[in-house]
Backbone:
């Protein structure tokens, strides 16, 4: 399914639930996390509804490559300091035991000066 009408992040992508947008293109949407753990904390999602990393298939390789190569650029644009003295965490929780709460694949990008609230 391309979009899940019951999915929170599908609704955010569609603009049905407001968010603070960081970036958008044909395939990717990025927005600030509503409960940030770090001075910079945004989420990157494919517009395609994929529940988690566990559902990835070879046909998603270009999409995920695009997402992951975009993350460092957006991290710097959002105020993370450059590697190696600065940097950022790129985290993807997959499944409930890993802390995944929203079942639409998303990558957390966190950074900025410490201390952080969490992470
Ligand atoms: P997970 O625990 O699934 O990896 O992460 C879900 C993230 O989505 C959490 O960090 C949470 O703060 C964020 N989140 C949950 N609901 C909303 C919302 O309505 N808007 C935004 N911007 N972030 C949300
Ligand atoms: Zn979704």
Residues:
């Amino acid at each position: 399914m391309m979009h899940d009408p019951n999915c929170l992040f599908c609704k955010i992508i569609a603009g049905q639930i407001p968010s603070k947008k960081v970036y958008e293109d044909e395939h990717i949407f990025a927005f600030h996390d509503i409960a940030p753990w770090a001075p910079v904390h945004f989420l990157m999602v494919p517009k395609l509804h994929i529940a988690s990393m566990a559902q990835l298939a070879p046909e998603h390789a270009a999409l995920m490559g695009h997402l992951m190569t975009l993350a460092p650029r957006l991290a710097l644009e959002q105020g993370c300091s450059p590697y190696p003295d600065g940097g950022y965490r790129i985290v993807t929780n997959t499944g409930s035991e890993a802390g995944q709460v929203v079942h639409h694949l998303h990558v957390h990008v966190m950074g900025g000066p410490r201390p952080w609230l969490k992470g």
Remarks:
- Residues 8-111 form a domain with the HIT family, subunit A fold (CATH 3.30.428.10).
- The chain has a mean pLDDT of 97.
- The radius of gyration is 14 Å.
